Amino acid sequence: LDPFQQRLGYAADLGCNRLDRRPQRGIVAAMLLHHPHGSFTDFRGKLVCLVHGFIFSGVEASAKPGAVQIPISKFFDAKAGIRIDTPEGPDRTYAVLGVSGLAPQWFEIDANFYVSKDGDTSAELDAEYELLLTNYWILSATLDATVAFSEDREIGVGKGLVSTETGLRLSYDLIDRAFSPYVGIVHERNYGDTADFAKADGGSTDDWFAVVGARLSF
Question: Where are the beta strands (DSSP E) in the chain?
Answer without folding.
Answer: 10-24, 27-33, 37-42, 47-52, 54-56, 61-63, 66-71, 76-86, 92-103, 107-116, 121-132, 137-148, 160-172, 179-190, 206-217
